[in-house]
What does this fold into?
Amino acid sequence: DKALTDPVANWLKKHGVELHLGAKAGSFENGALSVTGADGQAFTLAADKVLVTVGRKPRTKGFGLENMGVAMAGPFVKIDDRCATSMRNVWAVGDLTGEPMLAHKGSAQGEVVAEIIAGHDRKFDPVTIAAVCFTEPEIVSAGLGPQDVTGRDDVIQAVFPLMAIGRALAIEAGEDGGFVRVLASKTDHRLLGVQAVGQHVSELSNSFAQMLEMGAVLEDVAGVIHVHPTLGEAFHEASLRALGHAIHI
It folds into this structure.
């Protein structure tokens, strides 16, 4: 989502970080990293250390899983809505069960399994699991984004800039292009997704997830009196804007 990542890229450039997007790293020796640029041209970068952060793989080997006959879903362990595997009384939680590979998802799955083992009837079926990139500025995404509704004409999208929020201005969080964006159904105004980028917006992630989990409509968010001055007012204003009557823009 370029709209969300642009403020991060701009912050990095502003602080002297040189970006080579779409490039591929090659060999590293004698303080030089061989790189192939997005245009196919080769060049070298001087470096003392190279930090590689290219994602994660589920750890499904090395502890006997392959000998258990557990059904797999590609590289992940296949589970149902009770986190149960294909083997009786064997459950799986966390990153090895698939995306999103997030700590709070794994923790929630663990709680569900613990209650099931204790004899309770529980299921793991969240409407959404919010994700946060703890960059500078931060990025939050919950539910559907613009890329998920491309070509659809039944979705409302509205964006509200943080620079129009008093709290953001007070803590100098309104100058990096930050915003809150809502997506909702045109038919019944039910929230479909919420995204945000800006300083401290990770603190809004739980509100986004809660509203989506409860099946809230735009009017629900717009009807809540949001505390002033807080960053949460941007969620309120974005919902109002989606309804056609934002106050501060």
